[in-house]
Amino acid sequence: MNLDLLESFGQNYPEEFDGALDCISMAVTCTFNKRGTLLAVGCNDGRIVVWDFLTRGIAKIISAHVHPVCSLCWSRSGHTILSASTDNTVAIWEVLTGECNQRYRFPSPILKVQFHPRKADTFLVCPMRHAAVLVELEGNHKLLPLDEDESDLNITASFDRRGQYIYTGNGRGRILVLDATSLEVRASFRITQGTTSTTAVRSIDFARRGDHFLVNSADRIIRVYDAKEILACGKDGDPEPMQRLQDLVNKTTWKKCCFSGDGEYICAGSARQHALYVWERSIGNLVKILHGTKGELLLDVVWHPVRPIIASVSSGVVSIWAQNQVENWSAFAPDFKELDENVEYEERESEFDLADEDKSITQNEREVEDDLEVDVTTVQPISAYYSSDEEKDDEDILLYLPIAPEVEEPEDGWNPSAELEDGTTSGTKRSSHQDQKENSSPKKKRTKSYEISLANAPTDEVHPLVSSGGGNSEEGELIDVVEMSIAEVETFLSQKSVPSPGGFLFGLQWFFNKKASLYVS
């Protein structure tokens, strides 16, 4: 698909539901690779499901963790995936082979992990109630400095688009801009609500193009800033946000916010329901609200890096939102001008003459100039694939995963004796096709494990993804029966007053939807 030939004058944001991706397990988080050809989905059983987004099929399943996957991040080349689990472990996985290259053990729960945008040997980790940690592949780590006057440890951090700076925010609205190499404070400012009161910073996200970034705060307002202006203000500055985005009617709290691929739109997912709000960044007006199934709670939202497509996670399923594709059967004139209705063609007087007497000399010169050799071998770079500071293509980037087809009826001359000697039948091979897709590699290599020790880390904290939500006995009981069999689920539903007009299957669906909603903090 040539992205330069796509319609660029229309609305560049999704407008309707375009299907769902069922990962067998219950999805918790998702993220696109650099080009948007692959979608990695983290599930509650610890598996990472890699989808081929062009064919909407599963390309790879990695049995990554034992506990739910809470955060994912692709490397710049797409060859590795960084994952974090609720069991306080962070791992780096080889996408092609499914092998684990490195594994890091932390003393406290991990809320977010992020690869360096330019370096594959450095990543950022945000532990719960602790300062953010900058980790290298060999296990060396550095703690990001905190504000001298602040003691709040509810820290969220993020690399900027180029990876030159790290932006950190705490629970009192204080944002620090740190040099990614020396970790020195380059700029700082505070988010205030009104004139005096402060508000907590929940997340910081950067646009793929330009120097804009957004801050999601606890006062239900999304603030958009210019990174150049922040650096120009220096320490203890007072920059004014470019836009303030909020839901004035419902006063919605935002679960997750993100920029579009071109940075012109901002999407925010509601924490109360499955609803996506889309604003235009330049003028700040609300252009679209995408409503999902009622009663579902949102877990994650990501925007496709290139196309106007949004993927949202709710009730264990990844929902896809895209534009309405309308077929164009319009007619075209000989000069390729689109015609809305039939028009009478007026020919020139000399159009069908063998020798054009009215042809001018300038037209003859132009005809000679047009007789040039067309280069069909050189691949021109597509600007939509690159950031604003990129000029050359990354030849080592991983765009697609090779898949070996499963042949049920082989051709004549195929000798299955080798497989039959091992006692393997064709039916068994078909049933084990899913198992072969998981971590299939010719030779396993040893995983390097590192223990990351953090001083004063809250070791007794429970990850918000698996917390029972404040002592609700029924919710805690539901979380304890995650691995129930069908018979146990049927017994459980019979003991509960579950509205099931459609029978047991309806009640079973209600149970799993209820269970998925409990993973929302």
Automatic annotation (TrEMBL):
Subcellular location as annotated: Nucleus
Ranges for region Disordered: 348-372, 407-474
SUPFAM superfamilies associated with the record: Nucleoporin domain
Domain of life: Eukaryota
WD repeat residues: 62-103
Principal location class: nucleus
Compositional bias (Basic and acidic residues): 357-366, 432-441
Any one of the GO CC terms: Set1C/COMPASS complex
Annotated PROSITE patterns: WD_REPEATS_1, WD_REPEATS_2, WD_REPEATS_REGION
Keywords from the named record: Nucleus, Repeat, WD repeat
Protein name: EOG090X04Y3
Gene this protein is translated from: EOG090X04Y3
